[in-house]
Structures are given as C-alpha cells and as structure tokens.
Amino acid sequence: xxxxxxxxxxxxxxxxxxxxxxxxxxxxxxxxxxxxxxxxxxxxxxxxxxxxxxxxxxxxxxxxxxxxxxxxxxxxxxxxxxxxxxxxxxxxxxxxxxxxxxxxxxxxxxxxxxxxxxxxxxxxxxxxxxxxxxxxxxxxxxxxxxxxxxxxxxxxxxxxxxxxxxxxxxxxxxxxxxxxxxxxxxxxxxxxxxxxxxxxxxxxxxxxxxxxxxxxxxxxxxxxxxxxxxxxxxxxxxxxxxxx
Length: 244
Known about the structure:
The chain is an alpha+beta fold. The chain has helices spanning 4-8, 15-23, 36-46, 53-60, 88-91, 155-162, 167-170, 179-184, 201-205, 217-232, and strands at residues 29-32, 63-66, 71-74, 107-113, 118-122, 138-142, 147-150, 190-195, 211-216. A hairpin with a 4-residue loop joins strand 6 (138-142) and strand 7 (147-150). The longest helix is centred in the last third of the chain and has 16 residues, at 217-232.
C-alpha cells in the first residue's frame, strides 16, 4: 500500500478546484466539517490520491449535503457533526486498520438520496451483483425501479454533474410539490418512506397523492434490497451500512 505522504503530497490537488465548483454550484450545497485523522485513514484504505475528487472529498470534507438534504455525498465527518452524518469508512465497512487485501463489497458506496437511492463506484468485477456498466463507472440503485442504472461517467465527472443543476432532470419523476420543506426537516440518517411505493402504478400515476414519513435510511435500503430480491429473484448486492 502507498504511504499517506504519497497520497497527500501531490501536484495539482483537486480540493481547490472542487472548492471553486462548490462555490459556483447551481444548487444549494452544505459542506460539513471533516475529521482530518479520519480523512487520512480513509485515503490510505482507498489508495486514491488527493488529485482525485474522491480523494479530495475523503480528506477535506465531512460530506456534502445538496438541495437541503435530497442528496448526501459521503466524506470523513467530524464526530461532532450536527447532521448525524455517516462517512465513507462507516458506510462501506472499512477495516479498523489499513488492509491491502480489503476491497469494497460489489462497489464503493459514495452517496445516497432521501428516497433510498444509492450511488456507487463499480468494483473491478464488471459482473458484481449483476450491476451494469464498467469497472470504475458510477451506478445508481433507483428506488422507483429497484434496479441498478449505469451513469456513463466516473466519480469526478459525476460529482461535477450533481453540482451543475442536473438533479432536477434526473429526479423529475420522483419529486412532488413541496418536497424541499419535507426534506429540510430530516437529519443525515433519515429518508422519506413513500406509500404507495415509488415503483407502484399508483405512485407513478399520482405521486403528490402518496403519503410520506421520515424513517432511517437504513430501513429504506433494507426494504429496497429485499423487495428487489423478491421481485427479480436477484439480490442487488451491498447498498451501504447506514445504521451508524
């Protein structure tokens, strides 16, 4: 494994560039404070450098909260963070100390949304958990289809895309009038359970008429994985550990 100095002491670190993107973001973004020691440990386990957006977020950022909490991008949060926000290491069950043999199960979970959708970086195994896309490509587990979708981009391009205002189009079919106020009331471990569920004909026909309540995101992930397995007969694989 490369030493911390090799990962941090790089030419052209990505954090200043990403900071400019965050400042100019087309959507509201909250940058949570980071725990430097946790960030360094995360970088060593990931074996990515600070030249990448993934490394920059892991090292310098406790997490990014976009659009009042609709999308939560994982970093290395300080223990005192007010949002009860989980980090990359906890969600992906990193080993207690750096382990060269460890690999993320199926892929690295890097973000989740308020509906229980999950964004991940595909693992080196192109067939992991039946996921589409190539190794290193971003994929999304969609709660309205209970399937993985390949996004056609790597992590850095995807992160820039989330800041560009494209989320409105991406989530157009699963947003209802007044969603902003409902989302803003949640903390970093909560999501919204929708009934009838998003994948049902009733929800597709009249989404504003559905009922919604705050629940732990861990509950949404468990329900999504279980329902997908029941309907398709195929387990979508690891969606992250949010009961932290």
